[in-house]
Amino acid sequence: MQPLTGAPTSSDDGWWALGSPSWSSDSKEVLLPGTFVKSEERGPLRPCVAVVELASRTTTCVQFLKGYNPTGGESGYHIVTNASFANGDERHVIVNTRSPENWASIEATEYKRAADGGWKVFSESSSLEGRAEHDGLEIAVKQGLNEPPVLVATANQLSRPIWDPDGPPLRNIELGKARVYRWNDNKGRERRGGLYMPVDYKPGQRYPLVIQTHGFEESEFLPSGLFTTAFAAREFAAVGIMVLQVGDVGDCGISTPNEGPCNAAGFEAAANRLVADGLVDPERIGIIGFSRTCFHVMELLTTGTLHLKAASITDGVMETYSQYLMQINEGNEVDEETSIIGAPPFGRGLQQWSKLSPGFNLDKITTPLLVVGGGPVNLLLMWEPYAGLRYLKKPVDLMMLNTDEHILTNPAVRMASQSGSVDWFRFWLKDEQDSNPAKADQYKRWRRLRRSVEQNDHSRASLNATPR
Question: The whole model's pTM is what?
Answer without folding.
Answer: 0.80
